[in-house]
Amino acid sequence: MLRLPTFRYLQPRSLREALAMKADAGPDGMFVAGGTDLYPNMKRRHQEPRVVISLMGIEELRRLDGWNVGTCVTLSALSSLPTFQRSQSAVAGAAQLVSTPLLRNMGTLGGNLCLDTRCNYYNQSYEWRKSIDFCMKKDGAICWVAPSSPRCWAVSSSDVAPVMVAIGAEYRLVGPQGERLVPAGRFYHNDGINYLTKQPDEILVDVRLPAPNGWDAVYHKLRRRGSFDFPVLGVAAWIQWNGKKVGEARIVLGGVASYPQEVAAAGAALEGAPLSDEAIAAAADAAYQPSKPMDNTDFDLSWRKQMTRVYVKRALEELRARH
């Protein structure tokens, strides 16, 4: 049985108190929300904070104010809200596809947006990782997925993050230096270790969603077991309609890189024309080219790459059927 290491557990009631606790704890402190990612990582000794600061008691982080969503809203609540099911169906749908009902009841929006990158060589017990001399992401010097690479190739496996990038959401962060607003697309790095632009002493407070205004979005997910697995491919598609034509479009891939990967060429292939079979095929081909899954999750590499075409096509066909 994997056991948690010893740590102090703090429960601030305000952002100011949480930031002060983190400042006192220094590098030994970490924030936690639902804990569905951090606690398993602590059991495997991926993260080893001596002080864990819970954000769940901070009322501001649990608010829903118009299209501003607090990051401690649970995934279950997000997926079941009638307002989101109607006007933010891609967000609600992606939240509903995360793991199991039990974990969605605990897991939060902010936790899924900041989800640690994953890899077959990393998400193992301490003893297993020690037997291969560890990996670059934790305690080692080599990325076992690409041994000659100078960087870590662990994969972004968030379901909600690709949707946020696709719809153009903004994240509000608060830290010791004040407050800043970051577009979702600039919140992530294509690096398995340094995968967020958020600093360790900053708190992701809320997400500002764009109001529905002539656009639609959808999220499709590929995984082995539909009941609870992480995505090996996620496709978020967003279209701003201009009558019967596509005004703007964004295609964002999850599960194939260390960040939610927007494929600008795929969106450009759709713009300025009706969403025809030819346009959809062109966008699917454009998304296929930069999709480079690595041997660090499930399924065969070449098959996963081929599925990029299939899933982009399905997502766009769904958007066309809705319009």
Structural overview:
A 5-stranded antiparallel sheet has the order 4-5-8-6-7, with no helix packed on it. The protein has a 4-stranded antiparallel sheet with strand order 9-10-11-12, sandwiched between helices. Strands 1-3-2 form a 3-stranded parallel sheet, with helices on one face. By secondary structure, the chain is an alpha+beta fold. It has helices at residues 15-25, 38-43, 75-80, 82-87, 89-96, 101-106, 109-113, 126-131, 160-167, 264-268, 277-288, 301-322, and strands at 8-10, 29-32, 51-54, 64-65, 68-70, 170-175, 178-183, 203-208, 215-222, 233-242, 245-254, 261-262. A hairpin with a 2-residue loop joins strand 4 (64-65) and strand 5 (68-70). The longest helix is centred in the C-terminal third of the chain and has 22 residues, at 301-322. The mean pLDDT is 96. 31% of the residues lie in helices and 20% in strands. The chain has a domain at 215-322: CO dehydrogenase flavoprotein, C-terminal domain (Enolase-like, domain 1, 2-Layer Sandwich). Helix 11 (277-288) packs antiparallel against helix 12. It has 12 helices and 12 strands.
